[in-house]
Each structure stands twice: as C-alpha cells, then as structure tokens.
Amino acid sequence: MGDGKESVVLFPFMGQGHIIPFLALALHIEQTNSTDCAIYFVNTPLNVRKLKSSLPPNSSIRFLEIPFSSITHGLPPASENADTLPYHLVMRLFQASASLEFKSSFMEAIHNLTIHNHGRPPLCIISDIFLGWTATLAKELGVYHAIFSGAGGFGLACYYSLWFDLPHRKVSTDEFSLPDFEEASIVLHRTQLPANIAEADGEDDWSIFHRENLSAWVDSDWLLFNTVEEFDQIGLSYFRRKFPGAIVRPIGPLVLELKSRDRIGNTTGEVTREAILKWLDSKPSNSVLYVSFGSMNTISASQMMQLGKALEGSGKNFIWVVRPPIGVDINSEFKAEEWLPEGFEERNKASGRGLLVQKWAPQVEILSHRAASAFLSHCGWNSVMESLSQGVPMLGWALAGEQFFNVKFLEEEVGACVEVGRGKQSEVKSEDIERKIKWVMEETEKGKEMRRNAEKVKEIIDKAWKHGDGSSVKSVHDFLTAAKQLIV
Ligand SMILES: *[C@@H]1O[C@H](CO)[C@@H](O)[C@H](O)[C@H]1NC(C)=O
Ligand SMILES: *[C@@H]1O[C@H](CO)[C@@H](O)[C@H](O)[C@H]1NC(C)=O
Ligand SMILES: *[C@@H]1O[C@H](CO)[C@@H](O)[C@H](O)[C@H]1NC(C)=O
User: Fold this and answer.
1) Which of 5, 102, 171, 281 qualifies as a FRET site for 323, CA 20 to 30 Å off?
2) What is the pLDDT, as a whole number, of residue 1?
3) How far does the centroid of ligand 1 lie from the alpha carbon of residue 485, in Å?
C-alpha cells in the first residue's frame, strides 16, 4: 500500500455466481493494466480466504476485508456466502449486505485505503448489481463508480423489469408480457418465474430490497455487463433507456482463466481433472454431452432419475457432474444406486460411455475439448458464456434467478439452445429429454441450425476479444481511462 499507484476497488456480492466474474474482471484488469493501477478486491473474511488461495501465485491483486458477523444478521455461524445458505435464509444475507453496519465497514475500508495512499481516494469502485448503495456512497465521495453485472443484458433486463413492474400480478393468465421491457417482445409463463418473483406483491422483503437497491444504480457512472454487444443488444438497450445518465457497455465474456477456476472449484471429487481429460481424449470429436447444473444447484430425485434414463437412452457419451438431489445435504456422498436407474454407474463405467463426476469438473476445459458436442446446463450466465465462447450449443434447464430468461433468450432470440426442463419441481420425461439430446447432437435440421448459431456467437465473441483490441477489451480500458480523466 501507499506505493503511489491509483487503486481500483472491486466489490462483488457474497455468492459464487457473483465472485467468479468479478475475479475474472480483476485478473483481466491486472493483465491488461495499461493504466498501472493497484487492484483491491473487497469481501468478507471467509470469502477472502477462499479467494486468496484461488489466485495465481504471481498475482498482485490485494484484498480488503469487511468484518462480518453472520450471527448478528440471524445467519448460522460462518455463513458469508449465498451458496452455503438454505433458500429461506438468503434474504437475510441480502439484508445484511445493505445494513448500516456493513455499509460503514465498507466506508471505513475505503477510508483506510485513502489514508494509506496519502489521502488519495480510489480511482474507481466497481461493484455488484446487488450493492447499489456503493454507487450512492461513491457519488458522495466523488469517486468514479461502475456497476458490473455478471449476468447478461437480456436476462437482467427481464429480472429488473419484473421487480419494478410485477406484470404477473396484473393479469390472471399464466402467460404475460413485459410492457416495461419494450425492446423485447417477449411472453413469459408463470413457471418461468423464480419463486421470489412469483410470490412478490411489492410489499415483501425481496421487493423492498430490489426496488430500493437496484434503483440506486442511478448514481453510478457506468454499467458494465459480462456480455458482448452484437449478441446481447436488446438487453443492453433496455438499460441504456432506463439509465440515460450512465454509460452502458459490454465487457464480456470474462471467462475465468482455467487454473483459477480449478482452484476455486471443489476439487474434492474422486475423478481427477487428468482422468476427465484423458477420458475425453479417448472420445471422437463432437461426441460428448456435458451435464452440469452449476456450483450451487441441484434437481429433484425424480428429475434425476428421468435424466439418468434419458442419458442412457440417447446412446451418447456424457460427463455428468452429479450432486445429491433436493432435500439431501448437498455436501453428502452421492448415492448412485439410490438416485439413478439401477446399475447405471456400473453399466456406464463398463461401457466407457458415461462419466459421473462428483460436485465439480474443469468446465472450461471440458467445453473447449474437441470431443464436447453439447452442454445440458442450468444456463447461469457464466456457463452460457463458457459454452458459447467455444461454439457449444446448449440444452437449457433453468433452476433459479434470471436463468429462466437466459434460456428463453438463447432459445428464441439466439437459436443456440433448446429447453429440456424448467425449475426444480416440474415433471420431466426421459423420452422428451432423450429426443432433444438427439436433436442437438445428431445431424437433424434443428441440430445443425443450433450448432451454426452457436458458432456464429463464438465468432462474435472472438471478435470482441481479438488481439486485445476488440470492443469488450476496449470497454474496460475506456472505463479506467474515463475514471482517470475525472481525477487529473
Ligand atoms: C503470472 O504468470 C502467468 C503465467 O506465467 C502470466 O501469464 C501472467 O501474466 C502473470 N501475471 C502477472 C500479474 O505477472
Ligand atoms: C481500518 O484501519 C484500522 C486501523 O488500522 C483498523 O483497526 C480497521 O480494522 C480497519 N478497517 C477496515 C474495514 O479495514
Ligand atoms: C436496500 O435494501 C435494504 C433491505 O431491504 C434496505 O434496508 C436499504 O435501505 C435498501 N436501500 C439501499 C439504498 O441500501
């Protein structure tokens, strides 16, 4: 500290889906740092500890810890991450993140940093969509500010618009449009709403949090999205209209460099990364379906059974990242004999057709392997970006948050995805999933078209990153330059 460099402060919400794109952004700024800034990553102590061990050893990224007492906020001891909380407690973490105590700790951290830098405040603060109050604070301090969304423009526009408008409360039909998101002519079905939005009436805790905190973005100077302009224009134009005072720019796809993703992932499973890659090497090109529901989600026991039947029935090679079904401790042992069709694991091991991986797999490496053909995914935005930057088409099965709108976008606007399941409760049929796996992976008209569309997106993405001067790379540079100009 105090080495005369300008400092850039990054502050994600406490959840893996938020921390990962912020970490990717921090590493990107570090690598392309033409403005030579010191990078500070802000979070609570337990998250910082995990992050420290996931950084490359030669990284210069520094950490600022915000003290956090989970018990004070009605949370179990040592709970600082949305991913470790049961759903009914997640709201408390949100409330804690907007509490006076938390805000003043952040303010103190910024104050300390300023003192260490001989009275010079940070060059800028880049913070999370759920930490809107940091924009208001930065404005008061005269510090340049950006909101960075790890989510895509389209999905987040649906999410934002739903919270402010609650259009499903105004009609009695199952289907409804989003009049506030006029850039997209989309029709949603009630089953595509995350539980908290479906139940919202404007007076509930979630509505209150989102309406107040999301609207604080108005105090931000820039809104940055982990996406690409040509691919996600509709969603970005929504935010350009809503926030005419802010500069809205895509800076994606920020895909976390492989080794860091390895370190941050749970590598405690039995199948090692080397074994997975060796298995992939033994398979023909474009022959493997990769199945994963992300780092924090799982499906129901009956859905798992149907998916297992579909994978076997399809006759395709597959890697399936398995986690215990809903209702079972997510960290407990996976019981294939109980939750999958009888003899499933043995049969697929013997034939070499399927690989079950517990908890976590090196996703980016799998998707970029020549053997990868399609990705059955919950369509969290990190996964979407990781898949499409490799031109891999998707089978969508949204489970939470804006994932439902991502699937809608990918299926209807992009044409690189087909929906196979919706939510954790719905009934799915193995024949239906099997049929769709074949569509995507075989030489069907639909499959060819989906692969073509995924390839198109890959080209757009490549262009945005090409030679370090594509539109996305330029956006980050422009933002830091603009922040600098404010100071001198
Ligand atoms: C760290 O090492 C890697 C691999 O040698 C290199 O690509 C990267 O630029 C280095 N990062 C820093 C901050 O020096
Ligand atoms: C700020 O600095 C003081 C004095 O060094 C320290 O006690 C305090 O923990 C720091 N606060 C934060 C949030 O970093
Ligand atoms: C954000 O939400 C919390 C919890 O609902 C609330 O206490 C706070 O005042 C809200 N607004 C801002 C700008 O933090």
Assistant:
1) 281
2) 46
3) 28
